[in-house]
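Working notes for the structural subgroup meeting. M.R. asked for a predicted model of this chain before we commit to crystallization trials. I am recording the input and output together here so anyone reviewing the notebook later can reproduce the run.

Input as submitted:
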Amino acid sequence: MEQLQLLSKKEAAKYLCISTDTLMAEHAAGRVVGFKIARNWKFDRRDLDSYVGRKRDEATVLASAKQQRRAIGKKVLQMRPNAAAGPPLDHVWTPGKRIQDVCAARMK
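Returned structure, recorded in token form:
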């Protein structure tokens, strides 16, 4: 079994490349595990490593979701012809359709 590697608040913040205020905010939110010995905060390096792993996993999931939204064409554009062409048409354009083709079909 691996021994505990306890880091002080300052060392833990430096290890995570964040400020001590951010470290304590993350601890208050329950995302970083730490405890007090006497009047000093201590953090186990393994807990800090798991915190970094969770943050990396969150970033991966968010990036993947963003790519999926792009791939299925979630970005849409509402097309409305000019006022002289008549009443506004509600047509949703998704990537893969040419706006010109859709407008030409509507004007026929």
